[in-house]
Amino acid sequence: RTIVANTFDAHRLSHYAATQGKGDAMHERLFQAYFVDGQNIADHTLLTKLAVDAGLPADAVRDVLSGTQFAADVHRDIEQAQPLSRPCSSLSSNGLAAAPTQRCDRDFLP
């Protein structure tokens, strides 16, 4: 069970964690909280706890969450990901409207 939540701040916090060498630890905690435990990763209290558990200082985490730091990084991630999520469209004699695609490191796989 998961809770649908706005994950923008969780992504901002992930960017901060990466600058502190704690990106992997933060991602593990976020995935556990969201996908396994069904927690609301939009909640700043939970995000702070997860970040501290990952080895980040609580005061710095609260500063990130209360401001707009790393928002541009998240917007850039979203911008880069959007073209990667669109299927290749084509029309053929059998009426195929779209074909599934696989991409790896921004390149199409054969």
- The counted number of beta strands is 4
**What is the helix fraction of residues, given as a range?**
40-55%
Name the structural class.
mainly alpha
Count helical runs.
Answer: 5
Uncertain residue ranges: 88-99
The major beta sheet can be summarized as:
2 strands, antiparallel
- Distance between termini? 35 Å
How much strand? 5-15%
- The best one-word shape is globular
The gyration radius over C-alpha positions equals 18 Å
Average pLDDT, rounded to a whole number, is 84
Seen as an oligomer or otherwise, the chain set is single chain
Q: Can you put this structure into words, describing what you see?
A:
The structure is a single chain. The chain has five helices and four strands; from the N terminus they run αααααββββ. α1 packs antiparallel against α2, α2 crosses α3 and α3 runs antiparallel to α4. About 11% of the residues have low confidence. It has a two-stranded antiparallel ribbon with strand order 1-2. The chain has 110 residues and is mainly alpha-helical. The relative contact order is 0.14.
Key descriptive features of the protein:
110 residues; globular; 51% helix; two-stranded antiparallel ribbon; mainly alpha
Describe the structure concisely for a colleague:
By secondary structure, this protein is mainly alpha-helical.
Layout of helices and strands, plus pairs?
Layout (H helix, E strand, L loop, with lengths): L7 H12 L3 H14 L7 H10 L4 H9 L4 H11 L6 E2 L8 E2 L3 E2 L2 E2 L2
Antiparallel strand pairs: 1-2, 3-4
